[in-house]
Protein: Cysteine desulfurase
Organism: Paenibacillus forsythiae
Amino acid sequence: MIYWDYAAAAPPHDEVARTVEQLMRLHYANPSSLHRAGAEAAALIERARQVSAAALGVLPGEIRFTSGATESNNLAIKGAALQYTGRGRHIITTEIEHPSVYESCLQLQAMGWEATFIRPDAYGMVNPSEVAAAVRRDTVLVSVMHVNNEVGSVQPLSEIGRVVKSANPRTLFHVDGVQGFGKLPGGPRDFGADLYSLSPHKIRGPRGTGLLYVKEGVQLFPLLSGGAHEGGIRAGTENLPAIVAGAKALRMAAERRGEFVSRILPLRNRLLAFLRGIPEFTVNSGEEGAPHIVHFSYPGMKGEVMARQLEQLGMLVSTRSACSSRLAEPSRVLLAMGRGESTALGGIRISFGDEHTASDVGALEQALLGAIKALKIVEGGMR
Ligand code: PLP
């Protein structure tokens, strides 16, 4: 079996898995406890904060640990909206955000906030001038993702950050950086972001931990009530093993980005060219997309059917993002990009990791040809 679903979850580095196990056994003390074992645990978390901050190019005091990027996104959006109601009740996002952003905005809308959803172009690109035009005096927050998790489109974030601030300097800018970090240059400071979410398990770190960069001076209303952990915005005993191992994964991803891209981009480009040559497929990823994601559709054929066929041929792929892949509806992202319903139902996402080779891509290409043939035989038989 070849695993092509790194954008959903990447296998942890050996060093990451070892660190989690060692820390679970050795540093089980609660970092809030006043005894020596607690102080040691607290020191490890502060060290992980420094390592994470260095990987992002920000201050340690600007890093908050959460349970994952879903929580980071919820906290950034709802925490900012609830904190800054005095500034207004309008938020802006895009139609192609991850559900943890999109649904947070819908929830605020149901609670009386106004939400503007910006539509992307046919390649999943958001136009900065459309964002700028939507910003108002009462816009509290703009949230735009770095890389779309379904089709891999890369948003012009530095420009979006700039136009948001020039339209309204008090509007906060949040970036969901989950699929961009370790794959593309740029961090929160480059984008002019006030808030930036990350998830270590997408970059070969452990699950159950996430990060939220909160720019110095920005306040968030806590969504969890409890102790005064994480600067008072995220109550709950810290997941020490995952936090420390996650910081290691962040450092490794930042250090190895250049190497990753130079190995993976040619493989992605080869697969894109192959897919474009197959008349049955519609390629949904643009030329300028992220180096690790390729998305295509087999219009008229449900993505699940194609994915199951590919699995029989030894390839584990996904139909879209993991969080939405069990939905039977057409992809919201593809519909927003202007694709028809049958294309939006027939999507397949291939996502690369650092372990893939040219021979893996060759095997995938053969499997794709085999899957088309098998599905045509089944279709023919059903007529
Ligand atoms: N944002 C994006 C763009 C994602 O791809 C994902 C995961 O698929 C998330 C947020 C949520 O991350 P987590 O799995 O850490 O909750």
Summary: The two ends are 32 Å apart (CA to CA).
